[in-house]
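Notes from the 1:1 (GR / supervisor)

We went over the backlog. Supervisor wanted to see one worked example end to end before approving the batch request, so GR pasted a single chain during the call. The sequence is below; no edits were made to it. Supervisor asked that the structure be written out right there so they could see what the output format looks like.
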Amino acid sequence: MFSASEERELRRLITIFQDQIRVALDMFRTVMAMISSLSNPDSKRLGEELERVKEIRREAADLRRRFIMELYEVSPLIAHSEDLYRLVTAIKEITDFCEGIGVRVYEIADMGWRVDDRIVEDLARLSEAALNTLMRLREGILALSFSSPRASSIALNVYECESVVDKLSLI
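Structure output shown during the call:
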């Protein structure tokens, strides 16, 4: 299906994808910890976690730039380069949202606002569902390097997980 050079270039791109989704998961987990601490906020600790989020965001931006440079070098070789670009853009949006959430959580704590425990629990439940979706997306990206049918199956699972997140966000 792919020539040897296409296969090699595709594997290199997938490796960068895998690094990028790992970084997005690290960022999301840090933001989840920030959300969980809203019931008893410590603005100093949340400030440190926000700095960690920003550090991860910079790493994600570097990976995205590296991916785009690699993609432009090999795009004539890769038939589905636009799909790969859309996926890396979607992962960038995830990291953008995570950073925005982290900033808002920090600001809530810094202003001394008290968040009702029920709201914190609801946010934690929503965060868990979103984390599950990200984990499925990661599995799909990992599966790209092994098996296309497996990746397709996982993509459907990601869609189902997204539906759960959508339902929880409406409550």
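Supervisor's comment: The CA atoms of residues 84 and 157 lie 19 Å apart.
Batch request approved.
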